[in-house]
Write a structure and sequence with these properties.
The protein is of the alpha+beta class. The chain has a domain of 318 residues: Methylamine Dehydrogenase, Chain H (7 Propeller), CATH 2.130.10. The protein is built from seven helices and 28 strands. The chain has a four-stranded antiparallel sheet. It has a four-stranded antiparallel sheet with strand order 2-3-4-5, with no helix packed on it. A four-stranded antiparallel sheet has the order 6-7-8-9, with no helix packed on it. Helix 2 crosses helix 4 and helix 3 runs parallel beside helix 4. The protein is elongated, with a radius of gyration of 38 Å. 33% of the residues are buried. One of its GO terms (biological process) is mRNA splicing, via spliceosome.
């Protein structure tokens, strides 16, 4: 068969028909009758005006259908559907639609709801309530869920808050006067002192290394006059050592479980008798108060059992004791009134560390939830929320300037926060493992010390946050660090059962 004899086939366009099928069939029959040459091609010359109108109507209907589909898709994009799968299912149930198809995921279910709402239009959406009626339930719900709930506190709390306010105002005035004097100093004088301090830090060397216990040491601290050192360990013993020769002077017995932290009470002389001079806490929730002339505790603080008390700290006045507990709360104890004056909640998980500001007006707590909170002791309010760490916070401390806060975390970083600006100002990528503790220089705040599970402690400058010195020598992870009040000594405690005393050459 030649090419000229081959049949010619015309490709017919696919047409979407709307309306009655009877009219469509009649139109096809008319086309077959009007086929002149029998080749399957229509003789359009024989089409009447009505036929042309029918074609135009079909094209118009097709265009209208496409426009309607575009509008529906546009409307679907503008419809806001909740990403909560429970709310999506509830909306489908209200529309009398199946809440789930076989193999349908949350994303597919959300898309299906969008398609349904766009197809139903305004009829499928719930009727909008008047503005006044709509605002009223929302305001009531906000008051119910977000309003602060108050209850009347004990009289001891009111007495404590008034006392703290009067105490902190005088100290704040003194601190601001000292800050003003530093500002008036010549910049060359300040720079010279910083250079001299950095040279001294470079000369820092281990003065003494002592085996502190038969089991790993968990904490250490130095008293105000830098003559005594207090350590605790997993053996349930606390020991008092002399500084700088590190000879054992006193062993404190009484805990029945691992001791987690110890603290010296400020303002107590070394020769005082039957006066609370030290405090310790343990994993079983017990807190004990000790005196210099007795190896047994002179008072026990109950109320935390069975939750672990991780850290404790004395208020700068020495009258109050703060404890961080693993029941997601921290507590303030008044040693003069001999009772708990504040049981503060706010963290979602265990509270691990606590520190007081030098004025005594506020304190900061760090939790296993990775967040820190700054509390005003005079009002009980949380005045700053420390958000930025990726994991648990294990150490916090206030700078002597009163507004800088340092926090060490399990994410291996140390962050610096500004209480005045209420935001984070710097992140120090400090160690290769979690940071167990952090301490500021007490008599100037010119440097910062961090201890870590990478077996080292590091010293950082205050303004530039540059590393000044790395204290290495322990065989186990470091769990605690402290700086003496005269900045002459730095003590580090380790899981290798030893503590080291570092001093200037």
């Amino acid at each position: 068969m030649s090419d000229s004899e081959q049949s010619v086939y015309a490709k017919r366009t696919k047409t979407i028909h709307y309306g009655s099928l009877e009219e469509s069939d009649r139109w096809h029959v008319d086309r077959k009758d009007n086929d002149a040459d029998g080749s399957g091609r229509t003789d359009y010359s024989q089409l009447t005006t009505a036929d042309y109108m029918a074609l135009d109507e079909d094209v118009a209907k097709e265009k209208a259908a496409l426009l309607e589909e575009f509008e529906r898709r546009k409307k679907a994009r503008l419809i806001h559907v909740s990403t909560d799968d429970g709310e999506v299912k509830s909306a489908l149930r209200k529309l009398n639609e199946p809440i789930c198809y076989f193999g349908e995921g949350p994303a597919d279910r959300r898309l299906r709801l969008k398609e349904l709402l766009s197809a139903l239009g305004e009829k499928g959406l719930p009727a909008a309530k008047p503005a006044k009626e709509e605002e009223k339930p929302k305001s009531q719900q906000k008051e119910t869920n977000e309003s602060t709930w108050y209850h009347e506190g004990p009289e001891s709390l009111r007495v404590a808050r008034f006392w703290i306010a009067n105490y902190s105002l005088a100290r704040a005035k003194k601190r601001l006067e000292e800050a003003s004097e530093k500002v008036r100093q010549h910049s060359a004088t300040k720079a010279g002192r910083m250079v001299e301090l950095q040279k001294r830090i470079q000369q820092l060397a281990p003065q003494c290394s002592q085996v502190g216990d038969t089991r790993p040491i968990t904490g250490c601290t130095i008293n105000e006059d830098s003559t005594l050192l207090l350590t605790c360990s997993l053996s349930s013993l606390c020991k008092v050592w002399s500084v700088p020769d590190c000879t054992l002077k006193q062993t404190l017995r009484g805990h029945k479980c691992n001791v987690s932290d110890v603290a010296f009470r400020p303002g107590v002389a070394n020769d005082s008798k039957s006066e609370v001079a030290m405090a310790s806490c343990s994993f079983d929730g017990s807190v004990k108060l000790w005196a210099y002339d007795n190896e047994e505790s002179i008072a026990d603080i109950s109320g935390h059992v069975p939750h672990r008390v991780a850290k404790l700290a004395f208020h700068p006045s020495g009258r109050f004791l703060g404890t961080a507990c693993y029941d997601a709360s921290w507590r303030l104890w008044d040693l003069e009134q001999k009772q708990e004056v504040l049981h503060q909640e706010g963290h979602t998980k265990a509270v691990h560390c606590i520190a007081f500001q030098v004025d005594g007006s506020v304190c900061v707590t760090g939790g296993v939830d990775g967040f820190g909170r700054v509390w005003d002791l005079r009002t009980g309010r949380c005045i700053m929320f420390l958000e930025g760490h990726l994991s648990a916070i294990y150490g916090v401390d206030f700078s002597p300037n009163g507004y800088h806060i340092a926090s060490g975390s399990q994410d291996n970083s140390c962050k610096i926060w500004d209480l005045r600006r209420r935001q984070m100002v710097y992140t120090i990528p400090a160690h290769l493992n979690l940071i167990s503790d952090v301490k500021y220089q007490k008599n100037g705040g010119n440097f910062l010390v961090t201890s870590s599970y990478d077996k080292t402690a590091k010293i950082w400058s205050d303004k530039t946050w540059q590393p000044l010195k790395t204290l290495s020598g322990h065989d186990g992870r470091l769990v605690g660090v402290d700086i003496s009040h005269d900045s002459q000594y730095i003590v580090t405690a380790s899981y290798d059962r030893t503590f080291k005393l570092w001093a200037w050459d």
